[in-house]
Specification:
Blueprint (H helix, E strand, L loop, with lengths): L7 H8 L36 H16 L1 H8 L8 H16 L3 H12 L17 H12 L3 H5 L2 H9 L4 E2 H11 L7 H9 L5 E3 L4 E4 L2
Antiparallel strand pairs: 1-3, 2-3
Helix pairs in contact: 2-3, 2-5, 4-5, 8-9
Length: 214
């Protein structure tokens, strides 16, 4: 919900009578927030009750494994003597598909970690595998910023982007960061260097503003 103005739901509810009949609206909502759609007279389709989501996730998993053999290599490490490589990979696939709960983002980030060898599955209990998006992002931050000092260099950038009511341009972020500094001034080159370390977390939009990838 924004700090001001309409939410997506309230906007649709207010303007639905003004929309032309040829305009088709496809809106998605998480199951736990289903109450938000009560005021919308749309037809509903539950993906939770469809097997197509898991089929799509499995196809995506297989495509990534075929495109990057290192993923399979990092899963093979969990293969026991009585278990073949293929069975080991498929067992792992079913495990992460269950954890994903239909989230392509979760599956993508897990496979990214495997492809970069940031996690290597060494046993069948999969203890090294994050079980939620929060754990994945925490792991990524720990890998990117292994010390307190390295993280402190980007805290002001993160603070500005998190508190902004709308996506900011790079220049706007730069001036906002410097407004937080009392006794020092952050040069542009140093700012750009620090900003680059957040490349995977802050993505550039088509209008040259930046938003968090999540």
């Amino acid at each position: 919900r924004p700090d001001y103005g309409h939410t997506i739901t309230s906007f649709l509810a207010r303007h639905i009578t003004e929309m032309p009949s040829w305009l088709k609206v496809v809106a998605t909502v998480r199951t736990q927030f289903l109450e938000l759609t009560k005021q919308l007279p749309y037809s509903r389709l539950s993906l939770d009750e469809s097997d197509n989501v898991n089929k799509d996730l499995l196809e995506y998993f297989n495509a990534r494994v075929q495109a990057a053999p290192i993923i399979e290599t990092n899963i093979k490490c969990s293969t026991g003597k009585s278990e073949g490589v293929h069975n080991s990979v498929m067992k792992f696939a079913q495990y992460v598909l269950h954890l994903s709960q239909g989230s392509f983002l979760f599956l993508k980030l897990i496979l990214d970690l495997l492809e970069r060898s940031h996690i290597v599955v060494k046993s069948t209990n999969y203890k090294v595998v994050p079980i939620s998006l929060a754990q994945i992002f925490l792991l990524q931050f720990n890998l990117r910023f292994p010390t307190v000092q390295s993280f402190e260099k980007v805290t002001h950038i993160l603070s500005v982007c998190l508190s902004a009511l709308y996506p900011l341009t790079l220049v706007e972020i730069y001036y906002s960061v410097n407004s937080l500094l009392v006794n020092t001034f952050l040069p542009w080159d140093e700012f750009c260097h620090r900003f680059e370390s957040l490349t995977d977390f802050l993505v550039k939009r088509i209008d040259n503003t930046y938003m968090f990838f999540h």
